[in-house]
Amino acid sequence: xxxxxxxxxxxxxxxxxxxxxxxxxxxxQRRCVFEVFTRHLPEGRRxxxxxxxxxxxxxxxxxxxxxxxxAFLADRSIVSRETIxxxxxxxxxxxISGYREGEMFFPNSPILQVEGTFAECVLLETLLLSVxxxxxxxxxxxxxxxxSAKDRPCMDMGGRRTNESAxxxxxxxxxxxxxxxxxxxxxxxxYDLPAIGTAAHCFTLLHDSERDAFQAxxxxxxxxxxxxxxxxxIEEAVKTAVEVAGTELGGVRIDSGDLAALAQRVRxxxxxxxxxxxxxxxxxxxxxxALASLQSAPVDSYGVxxxxxxxxxxxxxxxxxxxxxxxxxxxxxQPVAKKSKDKATVPGRKLAYRSYEYQLADCExxxxxxxxxxxxxQPQDNWKDLFVTYVGHGQIDHSxxxxxxxxNAHRHRAEALRELPIAAQSLMKGDPAIPTxxxxx
Length: 441
Known about the structure:
Blueprint lengths: L12 H13 L5 E8 L9 E2 L3 H9 L5 H9 L5 H7 L7 E5 L4 E2 L6 E6 H5 L2 H24 L5 E3 L7 H13 L4 E2 L2 H7 L9 H6 L3 H12 L4 E3 L5 H12 L5 E4 L4 H14 L6 E4 L5 H6 L7 E4 L1 H4 L9 E9 L5 E3 L13 E9 L2 E10 L1 H6 L6 E3 L1 E6 L2 E2 L5 H17 L17 E5 L1
Pfam families: NAPRTase (PF04095), NAPRTase_N (PF17767)
InterPro entries: Aldolase_TIM, N/Namide_PRibTrfase, NAPRTase_N, Nic_PRibTrfase-Fam, Nic_PRibTrfase_pncB, Nicotinate_pribotase-like_C
EC number: 6.3.4.21
């Protein structure tokens, strides 16, 4: 995944065929408002965490068709020559607003709102959904894991359990969701994230003895490194580790077996050997339920892989991108809606607020109506506006990109979760932590 990679073909073909037809019949320049939302959370989940909007802004900066892209569209006869000419000068000039990264979302939350001409908005559909669906799924799973870990650091080790581009996205989303670092060096470089990692079992197996392996690692990385102690016999490995590094050994890692029982034995052994400050990290197919079961174990940090990058069983948030308002032939903005069975939408652009009682959120309020109606709407005093503006008149607000934006989202997630009723942190299946009320003006 290269920084300069174009994103304009990260789309479904029908976005371009719709553009072509709309340019032909004159509707392509009609003003439109599209909205991203999900009709439901994954079964039993109490909330979701928005992640990926910063990546969307990065992608929007690279949303330009190269000569080879245009040639591909022409050679395949996907669009007409006239549309190729239009695409040569494409640049998004509209407005994008929505929930900030790290914010909680619920069914029917208007997570992202895109306003512009039909031509420029329709081309973004697949890109927006692919980023938000995956990143928010990972961040939501990460948040549940961090809660279960009771503030013990969780680290992303999922790069080898997904494709190479998703691994980088997952690292970023994991930090938004509350994780503290990543093993993925490209993600660490791109987003200035803390990188973690020392050695795998193969390093121990490479050497003639475990002692030789430990000595080599300490010689290279220092006594503060973390030694992997379950290649052979854990008790012997811990003893050897302390003999080689001394009581100043930084940490040990356990990657197999009954992690709670082993952590207890290792902690007692380390203390008996005088290595009281040596930390214990555990890995091995952890999820939020496994982390919850380890709350009473003397574990200092966790490495999480497969279940993180797969959303812990919910690898997508089922988000959709729907047209909610469009300009009619008379130039008047008109709310529109689908009436499809089980897929009906609420007409009109939206505002979103969250109300509070005794400093706890008690309801999500979605207000739908025309631009004029929403401009005149007055929320109640205890309602918090959930929208921020990411792009105005085609100009990106760069404060929502880069390392600082990720860390701001990381902190905001923790604050937003604390504002929800405590039932939000339950791993038991249940309804969303707060209800969503939709009002059509």
